Amino acid sequence: MHSLLKRQLKRHFGGEPPESVKAFLADVDAAYSSFDEDRTMIERSLELSSDELHQSSARLRSVLRAFPDLFFRVDADGRILDCKGGRPGDFVLPPEALIGRRLQDVPLQEAGGRIAATIALARRTGRPASVEYSLKIKEGEFYYEARLVPLDESEIIVIVRDITERRNAEAGVERSLALLRATVESTADGILVRDLDGRLLVYNRRFVELCRIPDGLLASQDPDVLLDWAKGQFPDPEGFMAGIRRIYANPEIPTFETLETKDGRFFDRYTQPYRQGGLVAGVVTSLRDVTERKRLERVVLQSEKMSAVGQLAAGVAHELNNPLGVILGFAQSLVRRLSGDGDPQSLPLKSIEREAKRCQTLIQQLLTFSRARTPGVEDEDLREVVEGALALVAAQAKVSRVALERCFDESVGRVPVDRNQIQQVVINLCANALDAMSAGGRLSVELRPCRRGADAGCCVELSVRDTGCGMSRETAARIFEPFFTTKEVGKGTGLGLALVHEIVKKHGGRIEVDSAPGAGTEFVVHLPRRSQSAPLVGQADPVP
After folding, report:
1. Are strands 442-449 and 403-408 parallel, antiparallel or unpaired?
2. What is d(CA 230, CA 217) in angstroms, rounded to the nearest whole number?
3. For the ranges 43-52, 63-72, 255-264, 360-369, which has the lowest average pLDDT?
4. Distance CA 75, CA 72 (A)
5. How far is CA 120 from CA 77, 108, 307, 459, in A?
6. Cα torsion for 75, 77, 79, 81, to the nearest 10°?
7. Do the beta carbons of residue 68 and residue 161 sit within 8 Å?
8. Tens digits of residue pLDDT in 120-138
9. Given this model, what pLDDT does residue 535 score?
């Protein structure tokens, strides 16, 4: 184009053009030259940019293939514009079959609706959003997480990750935790886990039940409040707190201790360190109620002591009975040889005979008292047991000319008792009543259900009531003490009622006395029962 212009100018001027025109043409040549250089540079730059862009695109594709995620570029309606994956088999459908389809229409289950709602949310807010969903395909059920990142109003990048392995792992952890929770809740021990600051991490219902912890304390999660309440449950609060401080001073060392509460319960307390990543992060405490075991240990210990006392008493009784028998024999022989009751020499001999017999009775009662043991209870018909004892009492009542009356409630059937010991109770109570009465008195023995107080319906009452001289309130308060005799009666050894009290206590029962001077006395024995109440039937058997 530049050469053509020069030829036309020569024809126009008929030769060489003027200098001004030549200067103009020189400027045009310079401009064309500069344009050619710029064009060449631009073309070269475009070639370089194209290569760099190609290389950058290749690197990006390599990076995308390295990720396990699926990438979708969708329009505002969710229609797939492009998609990338690590492997061709990662997609539900081949990539070419996905282009042009709406992303929410690809999964044929309810997941499509959730994806559509998330796309709408990302468009509306302009912020990233995510949704989890599952797909059931021939290999099984798979779980996915889709993250949506808006590019502008018209396009959204969707990154889909397979989270099946994570979900399965989470489900396995949840199953393990559920099994652990069930195990912790099913144990008979109380379990408590606290961190090194004393804060509660885990506890089971059994721990709450054993410690009788108020709901408000657990809800507060304040370790200081909980400890302040807990130390008040023990007779030695400072000793309890000292034990807690020792545990937390060396939490890695297991401990064992038996604790006794103010209400008489016993707990074995075990502690073990709780570790996380190999480091001690807290303390696991387990409590076991051993109250019954401690009670049995005490019973066994007491039984062993009583057995030793019984053996000693048997030996002493044997040693005393022999000389007493000789003394009593000589006294009785001498009394028979004397001429009559009026002989002055017979009076001291009769006193020796009477006191020797009294000593023998005392020895026998001491031996019985020392051998008082834990009853070997069986379900016995209590009416039959009491009737058997009254058969022995009736003869003495007849000699003393005292009327013996019975009144048995038919509902008092089988009761867990030691037959021999309960008969001993009946005999001792009746003997005590006969000592307090003169001829013409009445002795009433009654069996009935408990009818008042907390024991109503849970026990039976054995009542022995006499019309004797009675006793003062002060005397009644001491009547069950060993070797205590009443001034009102002045008979006996003072061991009969003490033995009654001991037997009743070992049966898990209690005994009460109601008396007043000149108004007679009633002893009421309360015994645990397992039968139900029924109508009352009474009978009287006066003894002349």
Report:
1. parallel
2. 10
3. 43-52
4. 10
5. 8, 19, 89, 76
6. 0
7. yes
8. 888 888 888 988 888 777 7
9. 36
Please say whether the beta carbons of 125 and 91 come within 8 A. no
Which value, in Å, is the radius of gyration of the alpha carbons in the chain? Answer: 53
Residue 251: pLDDT over 50: yes
Check if the beta carbon of residue 123 is closer than 8 Å to that of residue 76: yes
Cα–Cα distance, 391 to 387 (Å, whole number): 6
Hey, what domains does the chain have and what are their CATH numbers?
2-62 (no CATH), 67-168 (3.30.450.20), 187-289 (3.30.450.20), 299-371 (1.10.287), 377-528 (3.30.565.10)
CA 48 – CA 53 distance, rounded (Å):
8
Say how many residues make up the chain: 544
Is the predicted pLDDT of residue 197 greater than 50, yes or no? yes
| Residue-wise DSSP of 90-157 | GSSS-HHHHTTSBGGGSS-STHHHHHHHHHHHHHHH-S-EEEEEEEEETTEEEEEEEEEEE-SSSEEE
Phi and psi of 90, rounded to 5°?
A: -70, -25
Alpha-carbon span 26 to 60, nearest angstrom: 50
57 has a pLDDT exceeding 60: no
Between CA 321 and CA 325, with CA 322 as vertex, the angle to 5 degrees is 80
More confident residue, 105 or 284: 284
Question: Any idea which residue has 């007779």 for tokens?
Answer: 235
pLDDT at 63 over 50: yes
- Single out the residue of 449, 465, 473 nearest to residue 526, CA to CA: 449
Coil/strand/helix, residue 85: coil
Q: Name the helix (H) or strand (E) containing 185.
A: helix 164-186
Q: Could you count the other beta carbons within 10 Å of the beta carbon of residue 10?
A: 11
- At residue 520, the 3 state secondary structure works out as coil
Per-residue tokens: 426: 């009946």
Per the prediction, the chain carries an average pLDDT of 76
Q: Shortest CA distance to 417 belongs to which of 371, 369, 380?
A: 380
**Alpha carbon distances (Å) from 137 to 108, 134, 143, 285, 405:** 11, 10, 11, 48, 92
pLDDT band at 22 (very low <50, low <70, confident <90, very high): low
Q: 3-state secondary structure string, 10-57?
A: HHHHCCCCCHHHHHHHHHHHHHHHHHHHHHHHHHHHHHHHHHHHHHHH
Exposed e or buried b per residue across 413-426, where buried means at least 16 C-beta atoms within 10 angstroms of its C-beta: bebbbbbebbbbbb
Q: What is the mean pLDDT of residues 58-78?
A: 69
Q: What percent of the chain has pLDDT over 90?
A: 2
What amino acid is encoded at 373 in this protein? R
Confidence of residue 523 (pLDDT cuts 50, 70, 90): very high
Per-residue burial over 155-172, b if 16 or more Cβ lie within 10 Å, else e, is: ebbbbbbebeeebeeeee
